[in-house]
Amino acid sequence: MKENSQKYHKNLSGYFLAKPLYPYKKLRENPNKRKIVELPWQLAACKNWKQLTQTYSDLEFLTLCWIYSSYEVRSFWTSIQEHTSYNLLETYIKYLESPEKYPANDLFMLADLLAEFKHIVQVIKLYEFLTDAYRKSGETRNYNMAVLRMGQMYYSVGKYEDALRCFTESNDYAKKSGDVYVYMCSVGDMGIINLLMGRLKEAMVFYQEQEQLCMRFGYQQELRNAISNQAEIKYTLGNWEQALSLYDKAEELCLKMDDKAGIINVFGNKSLVYKNRGDFNKALELLTKQEKIAREISSYEHIVASLTNKSSIYLALDQQDEAMKQLNEAEIIARTKHMNDMLQMVIGNKALVYKHLNDNLNSLRLLKEQERICNFIKNKKSLATCLYNQGMIYCNLDQYEESSALFEKSLAINEEIGSKDGIQLCLGGKAELLQQNGKYQDALVLFREKERISLELGKSLSVATSLGEQAKIYFNMGQTETALDFATRAHDITVKYGYIALEKKISMLIQVINFSKTHDIQ
Question: Tens digit of pLDDT for each residue in 210-219?
């Protein structure tokens, strides 16, 4: 029966291969829709991956397939790379090396496909070519769409200033020309960059404007994004009930649109809220739902993300074996699917599990591998985090010079890309190093700056952590009243926002300080 089915699909694929793409070749109008729809599906059904790769290697045919169903193209290319040695990048290398020989609009579609598989460096080069080509041809709308997409690529690798420059240019063009869609997209993207750069009020204004535009002009998917992004700000500020309410609205929109990819994102975001509230069971429930849908639609990126997030919860529950099990599965998928950006994330998280187990050498080994991948794919944001984590490991190993150098490297990258969150992390690392070496006054200066930036970003957990560390320093300096004041402020934050693990640590510190006061111990 199976052989008959394979033969049936093979015969049908041969039939559609023989059909011309255009009924009238000279006119090149009204392409054969049945061929566009049926041929890739029949080739995949009979597992003729070689012919499917050759079919998709035709840029014109790929473009028509992408317009019909970008999801199907992504899915079939995932299957090709899963079952064969054919590589997406190698298949389209001739278009990347000589883009001037091919239609710009077809290259635009190719850039979309490459972006889906995280070939960001090649995509940015392609958009640079396209912006120049559209500028010369006077195609202003296509030019600005390419600028907008290029900004999105810069954002994805942590080049926030370059991204903001692109979004601002697109925004200005759209405002002048009355292009509502480009304007709406650029407003949302400017919100994202402002959020990442710690400008929460500005980000919220952009997202609310985007929401109004989407409601007015009926952009449902973008409306879901605008609402979800507002929820992220509420989450960052610790307004978790408001965040969940907004995520519920986004989920409702996804259900109306049957937007499974959107549902996946909403479940993932809601799980973070429940995780930080200490409701690990609810968080795991949402991540399990997310993983199930991701597997149904073969969204391997989201499968890896779900497994990685589940591992962090198991780690918080001190279930290290289960955490590593989730990450091992995620690593296999990321390596098999050639997902380097996801792979570096998984490896970084495996390193944190080893750190939790006090296995500093294995943790460092994995962080070095993560560093190599981040350099290869030019992901500066993740590179900065990786270097910071290495610095913490060397600090644990009492190798303070190496630790300090890594913190400085990480700080320099974060300053370059404008990541205030990364900056406050590095300041905390440097302060901890000074604290361990008894340089209390210098450490206090850095912890105060970390606290200031964290307040600006709305990072209440980082604020509480900084206050707790300052309390320890004042206690070690014999200033118990000041230490108690800082510890109490830190404790109030942990109680208010439900940071259970940190609350326990701060409570123990307060007990030690009070015991010291009661027994007059200096």
Answer: 999 999 999 9
Distance between CA atoms of 65 and 403, rounded to whole angstroms?
A: 51
| Residues 419, 413: Cα–Cα separation, whole Å | 9
DSSP secondary structure, 316-369, as one string: HTT-HHHHHHHHHHHHHHHHHTT-HHHHHHHHHHHHHHHHHTT-HHHHHHHHHH
How far is Cα of residue 353 from the mean position of the Cα atoms in its chain?
A: 20
Query: Angle, nearest 10°, between helix axes 2-18 and 33-45?
Result: 150
Q: Residue 41 and residue 52: Cα distance in Å, rounded?
A: 9
Compute the distance between CA of residue 353 and CA of residue 323 in angstroms, rounded to an integer: 8
Whole-number Å distance between alpha carbons of 77 and 93: 16
Q: Quickly list H helices, 26-103.
A: 33-45, 49-56, 59-68, 70-83, 88-91, 93-97
* Residue 91: closest CA among 73, 103, 105, 70: 73
How far is it, in rounded angstroms, from Cα 124 to Cα 365?
A: 31
Q: Which positions ≥6 away from 408 have C-beta within 8 Å?
A: 430
- Can you tell me the distance from the alpha carbon of 248 to that of 259, in angstroms, rounded to the nearest whole number? 14
Torsions phi, psi of 128, nearest 5?
Answer: -60, -40
Contact predicate 145/173, CB 8 Å: no
Residue 107: the pLDDT is 95
Token readout for 82 is 């899963």
- For the chain, what is the radius of gyration of the CA atoms? 26
Host H or E run for residue 244:
helix 240-257
- pLDDT tens column, 225-274: 999 999 999 988 878 899 999 999 999 999 999 989 899 999 999 999 99
Quickly list H helices, 437-479: 440-457, 460-476
Which of 290, 362, 286, 274 shows the shortest CA–CA distance to 320? 362
Q: Which residue in 378, 343, 389, 350 sits closest to 366, CA to CA?
A: 350
pLDDT of residue 521: 53
Q: What's the token pair of residue 64?
A: 């028509």
Q: Is the separation of the CB atoms in 40 and 65 below 8 Å?
A: yes
Provide CB contacts within 8 A for 253, sequence distance 6+.
220, 223, 224, 227, 259, 262
Question: Coil, strand, or helix at residue 29?
Answer: coil
- d(C-alpha 169, C-alpha 164), whole Å: 8
H or E segment to which residue 7 belongs? helix 2-18
- The length of the chain in residues reads 522
Task: Give residue 278's identity as a one-letter amino acid code.
Answer: G
Gap between the Cα atoms of 519 and 515, Å rounded: 6
Mean pLDDT of the 43-60 span: 92
In one-letter notation, the amino acid at residue 4 is N
